Amino acid sequence: MSDTLKITKPVVDYGLLSKGAEQTVAKSETKNSPDKMQKVAEDFEALFIFNMLKELEKTAHLTKKGYAEETYMSVVYQKVSEFISKKSGLGIKEFLLRYGER
What we know:
By secondary structure, this protein is mainly alpha-helical. The chain has a domain at about 30-100. The protein is about 70% helix and about 0% strand. It has 4 helices and no strands. The chain has helices spanning about 20-30, 35-60, 65-85, 90-100. Helix 2 (about 35-60) crosses helix 3 and helix 2 (about 35-60) runs antiparallel to helix 4. It is elongated, with a radius of gyration of 19 Å. It starts with 18 loop residues before the first helix and ends with a helix.
């Protein structure tokens, strides 16, 4: 598996957007409800924990893994990181929420 991140353009069907629809989309995206901010902060913390687990795996294992084992462990790390960020976390979520309140 490659550790590089592929950046792609979002797919937008411009035929479906009218002048009124563009304005409503822009207005709804600017609203930062506490629930959305909580979810974004939680997801960021989960991503941070996931990257920490992947780097830990690199330092702990000296043997080469197959594609299936790499994929399986990636899913395991993703679920573990989501669980940790929801239950206890590292404090990143709380810091981001406090910073977002300013």
